[in-house]
User: Fold these one by one.
Assistant:
Number 1:
Amino acid sequence: MRRARSITPGNEETRQKTLETWLILAVSFGALFLVAFGSPDVRQHETDFLSFYSGARLVGTPHLYSLQHAREIQTQVSHPEGVLAYVRLPFYAAVLWPLGQLPYVTALSLWLTLNIAGLAGFIWLWTPRLTSVLLCCWFFPVWLNFGSGQDVPLMLCAVALGSWLLSRDKPYLAGLAFALCSAKFHLFFLLPVFLLARRLWRCTAGFGTGGALLLVLSFLAGGRNWPLDFYSTIHTTGILDVSAKMPNLYGLLHGLPLAGGWIAILSLLVVGATWYAVRRMPLRDALAVAVAGGLLVSLHAYLYDCALLLPLLLVLEDRLGWSKLVKIFIAISLASLTLPLPSVSWIGQVCVIALFTSAIYMAWRSGAGSLARPSPGSSGRTRSVPSGK
């Protein structure tokens, strides 16, 4: 006779936890799929992906930044109220070229799926735990990213990949991964501050090499006049005009007397504070601060770009615990809802600044004894207390 398999309390508890894990994963990512493929803009084919699709179709021609040619492509696949110009660097259009060869609906579906995979990759590489899944999948800016057809999850995945490679003592490859963030370079101005403050020279070399290769690819894909065309398109489309909705210093201070001067002064303070924090925090925490600081000093950002706050929120979870982090998470999520409303958008902008300031406070609390210094003979690796690994 076969002996009946015994069920111990330990086995039952493990089975229950496994079931809960899969249930949370299914519900969280299922919600993302519903948001991504069920939002009105996606179903009506009127997302920002129209601009990426136009770029993918026009790359290699002299018309990459042509509003007229973009309009011709977009009116064939949708009925947008206005033309969405391609306003990224040419190399990104070259990377997206395969999507431009597909029917628009197929390309859009693949694009949304790639971004969901990018968010999953970020979670897996940064902090692979269930609380990370809950924070990332239920963060309102992430939902808006998918509803708008944007690509912030792909940038988060590149940041996490660079951090993961650094932790495995592969600084040059990490720099190459960080270079991919130049697809949205205006949001990552403080990445060089992170690299230089930590004296990650090999990583800096990889970052410079990757940037140079992408620049060469941009000239190959966009022609020698693409910088002038790019500059002209940005100013023609008035991409910096909707400043009140931006979750940064530019959005908060626009319209004030001497706004340009105040923005410059406070941006320098953010850069200095980032340098201070990066020198005193563990490597991954320092990277999260640099990413959040880059959002603050940017001149072009929208609500969905607040998804770049996720690395810092996950760092705060490590420092404060889940119960305290949930309150901060809810507050940031609710505050972000005010950003599209010019009369109260300052609430969301101040909350972003407060979150960044809390990270600087943590760095200050860590004390001068945790100042990161390069190890003797190292070329990119650092030691710190707490450890920079």
Note: The radius of gyration is 22 Å.
Number 2:
Amino acid sequence: MRQTIFFATLIFICVLVLMPSQIKIGSTILYRPAANFSVLNLSIQRDLEFHLGLDLQGGTHLVYEADTSKVDSADRDSAIKATADNLERRINLLGVSESLVQTSQVGAVSRLIVELPGVKDINQAINTLGATAQLEFRETKSATPSAESDFIPTNLTGADLKIAQVQFGGSSSQISGQPAVAIQFTPDGAKKFSEITSRNIGRPLAIFLDNNLVSAPIVQQEISAGQAIISGSFTVDSAKNLAIQLNAGALPLPIKIVEQKNIGATLGQESILKSLIAGIIGLILIWLFMIANYGFKGLLANFALLIYILISLSLFKLVPVTLTLAGIAGFILSIGMAVDANILIFERMKEELRWGRPVHAAMELGFHRAWNSIRDSNVSSLLTASILFWFGSGPIRGFAVTLILGILVSLFTSITVTRRLLRLFFSH
């Protein structure tokens, strides 16, 4: 009974996740619940929309040129790779999935090519990825400095930063609700900050970003907690971008934009529609095959396959998985693979019945004796998909992710769900 309640609850949650953002019934509008929750002190927020890759929805294409003139030739390749890794970290913090960052050498010129699916605002992308975000804390010997030049650098910089995050309010110098950037220092940075604030009580401690004065609050007392707040005329977006840049760190090499463009979807809605039709045709053929070969048991397996599709699509929204055409192909392939385990189980059940076993005993033995084959075949598929994910990039990784999720979910539905349905109807 508890398993039945669990499965019913799971199906209900999947339906909620997959429903449109709003449904109008007469004069009543039903809204989809938001997916905002915390697990082990980790806040999770999802918009519950399908995320499409660059080939299906288009996005932004940027080409940067790296200045390697001040880098030794022996260190040039490692510096370019470090810059590419830094850009990739910034993209991940920006929340863009299925992005592509690759290097290119044109003669003596080193270039970085960045593709961002779904990002339409080129200027925002350029500002977030290319900004240096050099953070400095500067002190002054005067209680009333008259110019920025009156401040002198300390040994506390962005290199001593542990994490930066956006917050609203929380400081007496801020208007309530105004966005700011809260920063936390490393243990060494916290010691430096404590020493600096202790010797500057009653004086302003200036925060400079890229040599521009952001704020200069008066130090009221020594601050030993290793935390500070950067406040100023921030919007939510500018505060978020600053936090991204500070967390990612300074770029190892100076870069400049040499090409920028919005690129359209190369495949788009027509390919999505064709993929959907192919999936439906494949699903119908699987249904007919299972019913023709296994009768009522095949019908139950088909119902488990529907649950498999609901769970998989829900996970695509919750993870979230960016769907490229290759990823959709991986999902359609996994639908066919999802019934493999049921076929093995049902064939073992047929053998047990031919040997004169009662129906209930044949069912339990069928699951038990088919498990080793099911486990080995799925483990080998998982290993192959994991290798594709590890060594692949872009669409190949998208294919691998959907295939891995499909295999894991199919194990659950073909073993647990199908067994529960069979026990309901063949328990006696």
Note: The first strand starts at residue 22 and ends at 25.
